[in-house]
Design brief:
The chain has 192 residues and is of the alpha+beta class. It contains four helices and eleven strands. The strands form three sheets. It has a five-stranded antiparallel beta sheet with strand order 10-9-8-7-11. A hairpin with a 2-residue loop joins strand 7 and strand 8. It is globular, with a radius of gyration of 20 Å. The two termini are 40 Å apart.
Length: 192
């Protein structure tokens, strides 16, 4: 009987330790609450506009933006992506939670361009990254992986069409890039 009680106690301790490690690594609903509270406390976020849109700062009301949470750079910490549109946005901000603080991890300006490009969070073969698409007749595109140090590394690039408008083989790679559908701040709040 003592062995059974000891074994049960060990299991409880291990489960408690696992739950604590999970919370520490932010794999529970805790990150959504942290990010939600952070956004609400700010009321507005300030982003740097891309030079192609004239540069400078832009202020965004947090209730008018869209969000997505997950570990985007495989460092074990749940991050927050912010977009100005639900999908195929024109710019992206990514924040992370380290040492008890929300910090900007990656930024590519919102807006990123004057409407001729898409630059947004996406997935390719279960890898998060940045989808870039130039809205021109050739449909130039790239997919960039977000590294642990918050830099982006091009995984592949190509074009959708040749100069005569024929579909190129590289368009099959583009078709495998899954768009991310962001959610409102109200939907973010429902996560915890």
């Amino acid at each position: 009987m003592k062995k059974l009680i000891s074994l049960a106690l060990i299991v409880v301790i291990m489960l408690t330790f696992t739950a604590c490690k999970s919370a520490e690594n932010h794999t529970s609903p805790i990150p959504a609450k942290i990010y939600y509270d952070y956004l609400i406390s700010l009321g507005e976020i300030e982003t740097e506009r891309s030079p192609t849109t004239g540069g400078g700062l832009e202020r965004w009301n947090v209730h008018k933006l869209y969000y997505y949470v997950d570990d985007f750079n495989d460092d074990g910490i749940i991050d927050l992506a912010i977009s100005n549109e639900k999908s195929d946005s024109n710019g992206i901000e990514i924040y992370t939670y380290k040492n008890g603080q929300v910090k900007k991890l990656f930024s590519k300006g919102m807006p990123y361009s004057a409407g001729t490009e898409i630059f947004t969070l996406a997935k390719y073969d279960d890898t998060y990254g940045i989808k870039y698409l130039r809205l021109n007749s050739l449909g130039d595109f790239s997919f960039f992986r977000i590294s642990k140090d918050a830099t982006i590394e091009e995984m592949f690039s190509g074009g959708l069409y040749d100069i005569d408008g024929n579909v190129l083989d590289t368009s099959t790679s583009y078709d495998k890039i899954d768009p991310i559908t962001f959610y409102s701040i109200g939907e973010l709040k429902k996560m915890f």
